[in-house]
Amino acid sequence: MYKAIIRPFLFWFDPEKVHYFTFSLIRNISKLPGFKSLFRRMYLVEDKKLERQLFGLTFKNPVGLAAGFDKDAKLYNELSNFGFGFIEIGTLTPKPQEGNPKKRLFRLKEDSAIINRMGFNNGGVEEAVERLKKNKGVLIGGNIGKNKVTPNEDAVEDYKICFNALFDHVDYFVVNVSSPNTPNLRALQDKEPLTELLKALQVLNFQKTNSKPILLKIAPDLTNEQLDDIIDIVKTTKIDGVIATNTTISREGLQSENKKEVGGMSGKPLKSRSTEVIKYLSEKSNKAFPIIGVGGIHSAKDALEKIEAGADLVQLYTGFIYEGPKLIRSINKALLHN
């Protein structure tokens, strides 16, 4: 029904407007009697065999929603009814920001992909904290970044502000230095500044009564030498894992007319490169740290490939938009029979 009727209707309209319309629709429908239970019956797969123990946390199943979909933690309770084992909110910044000028979100229908140059648009970390206080048992990841106006030499302070604000309200943290849509942000992936940033967050982390897992989200465009640096950085800073990968600036093999739009590309064309990065990190590090695999998952087969490559958990974003919530159920069912 989703791919035959709902998606064609939604795809007639501007993607950013559709995003907010869909949020409102899901929120309002979920308030109606019986619909929460209906969604859970349709999409949720509950089985102890799906549980994963990572970072000292119990994930009900290994299929999560990637950051960027529920940036401001406005819909995580309702979205969890579609069967996700965990939901990552953000990217959040200390101060609210509008993000980049519109139009900034583009469907590449022929490629089953999306290009975005949103630019960390969000209402600021404090607003999100107020919403997270209403959490009804959803396992939450907090994806944090810096404000656009903050120079890289001051970036550590922005991440520390977000870390402290979110600490009591999320289950794990994700440090985002890999979005291509904030000027110079990816320069923070270089070995020296990234090590400094992660060490600073770990100092804060270990000052808390109970520390929280910290993960690093990396770009798919890193070279093998840079991936070797990532492995060294994880070891040096003793962070808990890596999310591979963010969106790509590559446009190789795309067919859609709007393929030259500036921004990060996600979806099917990213699948192979994302899996390559996962496999490289897993094998080169001798599986020294957990990996969350994301990028181009549009089927259960795609998810299984990520796991076989070395991912411990997977996340959806563009695949969720193109394939609908049935994708979550199909992945979990396939994992049970794999």
UniProtKB/TrEMBL annotation:
Substrate binds at K71, N116, R117, M118, G119, F120, N176, N181, N246, T247. One of its GO terms (molecular function) is transferase activity. The active site is at S179 (nucleophile). Its EC number is 1.3.5.2. Keywords: Cell membrane, Flavoprotein, FMN, Membrane, Oxidoreductase, Pyrimidine biosynthesis, Transferase. Its cofactor is FMN. Residues 50-336 form the Dihydroorotate dehydrogenase catalytic domain. It comes from the Bacteria. Binds 1 FMN per subunit. FMN binds at A67, G68, F69, D70, K71, T91, N143, N176, K217, T245, G267, G296, Y317, T318. CDD domains: DHOD_2_like (cd04738). It catalyses: (S)-dihydroorotate + a quinone = orotate + a quinol. Monomer. Catalyzes the conversion of dihydroorotate to orotate with quinone as electron acceptor. Belongs to the dihydroorotate dehydrogenase family. Type 2 subfamily. This is Dihydroorotate dehydrogenase (quinone). It comes from Winogradskyella marincola. The gene is pyrD.
